[in-house]
Amino acid sequence: MKSPVDTEISRRGILVGGVATAALTVSTADAQTPPTPAQPATMKVSFDVNGKRRNLELDTRTTLLDALREHLHLTGTKKGCDHGQCGACTVMVDGQRINSCLSLAVMHQGDRITTIEGLGQPDRLHPMQAAFVKHDGYQCGYCTPGQICSAVAVLDEIKAGIPSHATGDFTTRPAITNEEIRERMSGNICRCGAYSNIVDAINDVAGVRA
Ligand code: FES
Ligand code: FES
């Protein structure tokens, strides 16, 4: 049978052992170097922008919009909402319009990208740019690069026979009407409300009387 003294020694031993273990744990933790934050993953990507081959190494989370604006300094393409809701960031990829804020740059390896700078320049405007000037298709101009890229692609879509929600008969080629244009341009928001002049500009390029 254990004496009260044996019991006391035993309890003290446990307590001392516990304290020593805790101290060792703390001192080991102190000695550890703080964890280094994980480096963002990067990837090389190469695509053609307005006829020039561009090679970039990007954080894989970089959107095509940010690659164009921040890395290639092509600031004609605008950032409005950055959420796919306004169309200000519209560019063409292999001839088709996309919202560049919704697409990762590294997904475009080998693609052919056209921005507003690639459509025309002040001394040689694209017909759609000239029509926007002629018809006052803008006020502040913030949405305009996206509107023009979209408008060029819209006429190509109609020409290719691609139907829209406004196309009444899917068995015939869609016609260029105000309804078709308004429906197809509905993803491009203009806070200045230049919509009717934009439609006039597009009709003008299409050779259709509004
Ligand atoms: S910035 Fe891309 S849709 Fe608004
Ligand atoms: S011209 Fe100002 S937002 Fe369209």
From TrEMBL:
Keyword Oxidoreductase: yes
SUPFAM superfamilies for this protein: 2Fe-2S ferredoxin-like (SSF54292), CO dehydrogenase ISP C-domain like (SSF47741)
Sorted UniProt keywords: Iron, Metal-binding, Oxidoreductase
Record's keyword annotation contains Phosphoprotein: no
Pfam family of the protein (one): Fer2_2
Entry EC no(s): 1.2.99.6
MF term (GO), any: carboxylate reductase activity
Boundaries of every 2Fe-2S ferredoxin-type domain copy: 43-119
Coiled coil: none
PANTHER family reported for this sequence: ALDEHYDE OXIDOREDUCTASE IRON-SULFUR-BINDING SUBUNIT PAOA, OXIDOREDUCTASE, IRON-SULPHUR BINDING SUBUNIT-RELATED-RELATED
Matching NCBIfam families: PRK11433.1
Name by which UniProt lists this protein: Aldehyde dehydrogenase iron-sulfur subunit
Organism: Sphingomonas mollis
